[in-house]
Amino acid sequence: MARVVILYSTTDGHTVEICKRLRQTIETGGHSVQLLDVKDDPDLVDGTFDKVVIGASIRYGKHQPLVNEFIKKNQAILENHPNAFFSVNVVARKPEKNQPETNPYLQKFLKKIDWQPKLLDVFAGRIDYPSLGFVDKHMIRFIMWMTKGPTDPSLTIEFTDWDRVAEFGEKIAEL
Ligand SMILES: Cc1cc2nc3c(=O)[nH]c(=O)nc-3n(C[C@H](O)[C@H](O)[C@H](O)COP(=O)(O)O)c2cc1C
């Protein structure tokens, strides 16, 4: 049995939902999973876990700066364990941008950090128009209009491929 730590960075909670699905898959394989928010600057203590995963969402073109800081601070311990990273963004709803190699945010992020995660993935996120404030709602509608996505402000659209999330969970279990 492996002890897996999943650290997440989220603004509206969808990345946590993805982490919960990962946890479900990994626990089904007989392993234990701990979910931690990067915002709480959790301590990664050697000997208390066997594998580590970081998941972060994109907002206005970037993961939260806290994610880069956390990686920098914990680089050595990350590298000493089987590790994985995933990004959540809505550009990944497009088939030509839904792989780690083709997702522009993930590629840009990897160039910025020194850590090279052993396993990578990218998941399409969710747009919950009714929950957004005025500025964000209209910015996202504009971006969606530009990129031929849904613009109806009454809609909540989940683009996430949950089977793919579960497959990633299986890969983490095998790391
Ligand atoms: C204000 C705002 C800005 C966003 N900016 C981007 C963006 O620049 N590119 C993108 O692909 N997705 C963008 N998204 C989509 C988010 O990545 C997506 O909603 C994701 O599911 C958010 O995950 P979270 O709830 O864990 O933060 C944005 C969403 C919001 C609400």
Question: What do you see in this structure?
Answer:
The protein contains five helices and eight strands. With 175 residues, the chain is of the alpha/beta class. Helix 3 links the parallel strand 5 and strand 6. The radius of gyration is 16 Å and the shape is globular. Flavin mononucleotide (FMN) is lined by residues 10-15, 57-61, 88-91, 125-127, 132, 136, 140. Flavin mononucleotide (FMN) binds at residues 10-15, 57-61, 88-91, 125-127, 132, 136, 140.
Which characteristics define this entry?
6-stranded mixed sheet, 175 residues, binds flavin mononucleotide
Short summary:
By secondary structure, this protein is of the alpha/beta class.
User: How much helicity do the residues have?
Assistant: 25-40%
Q: Helical element count?
A: 5
Overall structural class, as computed from helix and strand content, comes to alpha/beta
Structure ligands: flavin mononucleotide
End-to-end C-alpha gap: 12 Å
Spatial shape: globular
Averaged pLDDT: 97
Order of helices and strands: EHEEEHEHEEHEH
Question: Strands, helices and their partners?
Answer:
Blueprint: E1 3-9, H1 14-28, E2 32-37, E3 51-59, E4 62-63, H2 65-79, E5 83-89, H3 104-112, E6 119-124, E7 126-128, H4 134-146, E8 156-158, H5 162-174
Parallel strand pairs: 1-2, 1-3, 3-5, 5-6
Antiparallel strand pairs: 3-4, 7-8
Helix pairs in contact: 1-5
Bound molecules: flavin mononucleotide.
